[in-house]
Amino acid sequence: MPKTPESLQPDQEVNNKNEEIITPERVDLSEKGTPIIEKKDRILTGMRPTGSLHLGHYVGALENWIKLQGNYDCHFLIADYQAFGDYADNISKIRDSVIEVAMDWLSVGLDPHKTTFVIQSYVPEHAELAMLLSMIIPKWMIDRNPTLKAESATQKDVSLGFYNYPASQAADILLPKANLVPVGEDQLPHIELTREIARKFNRMYGHIFPIPTALVGRVPRLVGIDGKAKMSKSLGNCVYLSDSPEVIAKKVKKMFTDPTRLKATDPGHLEGNVVFTYLDAFHPDAAELESLKKKYTEGKIGDGEVKNILAELLNAFLEPIRERRAFYQAHPEAVREALLEGTEKAKKVAAATMLEVREAMEITGYEDIKNIKKIIEK
Ligand code: ATP
Ligand code: MG
Q1: For the segment 214-259, what is each residue's pLDDT rounded down to a tens digit?
Q2: 233 lines ligand 1 (CB under 6 A)
Q3: How far is the CA of 148 from the centre of ligand 2 (A)?
Q4: Residues 301, 303: Cα–Cα separation, whole Å
Q5: What ligand has the least distance to the C-alpha of 236?
Q6: How far apart are the C-alpha atoms of 344 and 11, rounded to whole Å?
Q7: Least crowded by CB within 10 Å, which of 16, 54, 131, 132?
Q8: 10 has which bridge partners?
Q9: Among residues 197, 178, 201, which one has the least CA distance to residue 189?
Q10: What distance in Å separates the CA atoms of residue 209 and residue 354, rounded to the nearest whole number?
Q11: Where are the strands (E) in the chain, listed by range?
Q12: Separation CA 48–CA 121 (nearest Å)
């Protein structure tokens, strides 16, 4: 069953210091005619535009985002700068993917009127803050990051930009002064780093940033259709939110079940059974799923039949997503508006934070003749 926002699990490890969540400063932009900050906690989360989104993105992140969007001031970032870290030789792929991600977000029901979609590279303050934060992040803190280690292992020639992406992600979160960050499990080391760096910055220069808390989704890590630990574009083991019913049927047919089971009357095993992992994630009726599991373990239903049930469920789940996608395909101006209006709002928030950061760090005052005289006459 889908869970309500109240039942979202704040990450234990990240939260174990019982630290009070500091609410962000409320930036009053009303004099500019856009009172965009309401009395709500702010969420920042995002995705890298490196292709279409898949079921892992949905259960690990998007499902939460949809539930949170009405109750929080949500900023959803399309992190194209971050994607350049490993796609600098293929910028056009990233540019196309910015639109694909926006289409996927709109199709799953993220509402640009309730939330703020942000194109990272159109708010260059992200780069400025990332650079400044990287001055106070010890190198060993990046070296020990397990997610970065695992991702670097799959790359031939890791760029400095890629290596530095945890700093960039900390800047993404801190720039809008977010205090909640809904993410998949693989992102927790990055949130931990963000918290450490926010505390360090506040200690060194004065209190500017709230200490953000991670929220992990219902399915922290969805396995791939090949049974590998994570459904991931780069592993080629995905069911995409944009897959057609025919493609879904084909992919489900290929999924692993119980390798020890030779015929339908053999008792089936559920553990490590990819089809049942997906049924656990997507079956809307817990009682029905229980009885299906019972039949399977008693050898009363064949693998083919179970796969048909899964394919049907996935198609039923994707149907409303397909309908919304068709709407936005017919209305490209709505996609443009979602991206540009959100980004415009984010620019104002970013400018206000960077003003505070520059003042706190005392990177100011060169325009003041008094300061120049003071030094010259010393
Ligand atoms: P891919 O590995 O497919 O390239 P990604 O890791 O690049 O995807 P990100 O933009 O880094 O995608 O992640 C976006 C969000 O989706 C993150 O919060 C991440 O934890 C979550 N996520 C991605 N894949 C999965 C998965 N298989 N299960 C659960 N959450 C996932
Ligand atoms: Mg990732």
Answers
A1: 998 888 899 999 998 899 998 999 999 999 999 999 999 999 899 8
A2: yes
A3: 9
A4: 7
A5: 1
A6: 32
A7: 16
A8: 215
A9: 197
A10: 11
A11: 9-10, 42-47, 73-78, 116-119, 180-183, 213-216
A12: 12
Residue type, 289: L
Residue type, 244: S
91 CB-side CA count, 13 A: 3
Residue whose entry in the numeric block shows the structure tokens 């993105």: 57
137 and 266 in a single domain? The answer is: no
CA 76 – CA 46 distance, rounded (Å) = 5
Task: Give CA–CA dist 127/132, Å, rounded.
Answer: 9
- Cα separation, 287 vs 318, in Å, equals 22
The three-state secondary structure class of 150 is: helix
Q: Do 67 and 201 sit in the same domain of this protein? A: yes
Q: What is the CATH number of the domain that holds 262?
A: 1.10.240.10
Q: How many angstroms separate the alpha carbon of residue 47 from the centre of ligand 2?
A: 8
Which stretches of 122-264 are assigned E, i.e. beta strand? 180-183, 213-216
- CA 190, CA 183: separation in Å to the nearest integer? 10
Tokens for 350, please give them.
């970013």
Q: What domain range includes position 279? A: 243-330
* pLDDT tens per residue across span 35-74: 334 447 999 999 999 999 999 999 989 999 999 999 999 9
Predicted TM-score of the model (pTM):
0.87
| Residue 321 covered by a domain | yes
